Amino acid sequence: MSHKSQPHAARKAEFAERALAFTIDYALFTGIWYLVLKAVDPTLPVLLNEKGTIVTAFLAALFLVYQAFFSCEGRATLGKSLLGIRVADAAGDPLDIGRAIIRAVSYIPSSLFTLGFFWALIDSKGRAWHDLAAGSGVVSDHRLGRLRGPVLRLAAGTLVVAFALSVG
Questions:
Q1: How far apart are CA 122 and CA 128, in angstroms?
Q2: pLDDT in the model for residue 145
Q3: CA distance 166 to 137
Q4: Which terminus of the chain has a lower count of CB atoms within 10 Å, N or C?
Q5: What is the phi-psi region of residue 7: left when phi exceeds 0, alpha when psi lies from -120 to 50, beta otherwise?
Q6: Cα separation, 48 vs 149, whole angstroms
Q7: What is the pLDDT of residue 161?
């Protein structure tokens, strides 16, 4: 008789997993932003480049499209793919494009002092404001594991502190 292990149900993704995935996606777009601004005018410093506002607005819009596209129909952003997490509806199924667009556009209010992102820490289902707006959540199909959990929490905590120090 062969013994097959039963697949385990998806679990709510931890805040640390979400933070790291978002950081990876954000870093991707920050790198693109830097390269585009240097290509537009290599003589100006990136942070003081007067063309930066247009490039930033364009890339912010592109980031929302990226988030919407990769949050529906079973796809995942680069960061979520690397962490093994995905966006799902309340039943654990992939979002449709309409709800994924609502979720992506709702990143705007979530970004206000990052309060909407940190809401996932106090919500009983781990949902951020953009998840609440779209009726979604972020889940993982992988067990957290004895080592993975503490390592993820340490990495995410380090990133949150680094972000807080860079903004403040």
A1: 9
A2: 65
A3: 28
A4: N
A5: beta
A6: 40
A7: 76
CA dist 130 and 116 (Å) reads: 7
List Cβ neighbours of 120 (8 Å cut-off, separation of 6 or more). Answer: 15, 18, 126, 127, 128, 131
Distance CA 34, CA 39 (A): 9
Neighbours of 113 (CB within 10 A): 9
159: region left, alpha or beta (phi > 0 left; psi from -120 to 50 alpha): alpha
pTM of the model: 0.80
Cβ atoms < 10 Å from Cβ of 70: 21
* Mean pLDDT, each 10-residue run in order, the chain (168 residues): 52 91 90 84 70 81 96 95 93 95 96 90 94 96 72 78 64
Whether the Cβ atoms of residue 139 and residue 86 lie closer than 8 Å to each other? yes
Whole-number pLDDT of residue 138: 96
Strands (E), the chain: 11-12, 85-89, 136-140
